[in-house]
């Protein structure tokens, strides 16, 4: 197949097969990581919408794309998973595609105004927004009514009058967007002490922000 002077490789005819989950082999040198949270989100998606995207494997049954989907399927206790065998790819193409499939997805973004419209529609349909994969902070950023502090309710808060020392809190974020949303939420009016757990090592933090907690009068605690 060709388009505008370029030849595009046409895959051999293939159909989705249903394999026992144990037959699918994770790639031992898979460079892409997935957090427990990511696996949980994919599992929730599969449970709600069905297994819509098959796991892509090579001719030996080793995963090219779909490690997180397989992990999610096992978490759900699924005995069989959909598989697409890319038997026509060369060993070099398999290695390159394994990287490209993950890396190219990182180039995409969100048209925020349109995303807000979609979320507004879902709220009107009384749909569970967590099934979109968005986090609580992102709900708040896009106008959803979900409480962004719900996950922090069990964390301790210090009395505003406690001026025994200055607390520097380092907050780890997955992305610039998460950081921006967080600091917009706490704002300069946020006076209570906020405790944040240390990173468990699974979060690929791109930012390390610090702020000094202030007392109810707006003075720095000392």
Q: Output the strand order for the largest sheet.
A: 3-6-4-5
Strand content: 5-15%
Class of secondary structure makeup: alpha+beta
Task: Compute the number of helices.
Answer: 6
| Total count of strands | 8
CATH homologous superfamily assignment of the largest domain:
Conserved hypothetical protein from pyrococcus furiosus pfu- 392566-001, ParB domain
What is the N-to-C succession of helices and strands?
EEEHEEHEHHHEHE
Main traits of this protein?
globular; four-stranded mixed sheet; 8 strands; single chain; Conserved hypothetical protein from pyrococcus furiosus pfu- 392566-001, ParB domain; alpha+beta; disordered C terminus; 222 residues; two-stranded antiparallel ribbon
Detailed description of the structure:
The protein is α+β, with helices and mostly antiparallel strands. It has three domains: 12-107, Conserved hypothetical protein from pyrococcus furiosus pfu- 392566-001, ParB domain, CATH 3.90.1530.10; 109-148, no CATH class; 155-222, no CATH class. The protein is built from six helices and eight strands. It has helices at 36-49, 67-76, 91-103, 112-124, 136-141, 176-186, and strands at residues 2-3, 6-7, 17-20, 55-57, 63-65, 80-85, 168-173, 207-212. The chain has a four-stranded mixed sheet with strand order 3-6-4-5. A two-stranded antiparallel sheet has the order 1-2. A hairpin with a 2-residue loop joins strand 1 (2-3) and strand 2 (6-7). The longest helix has 14 residues, at 36-49. The radius of gyration is 23 Å and the shape is globular. It starts with a strand and ends in a 10-residue tail after the last strand.
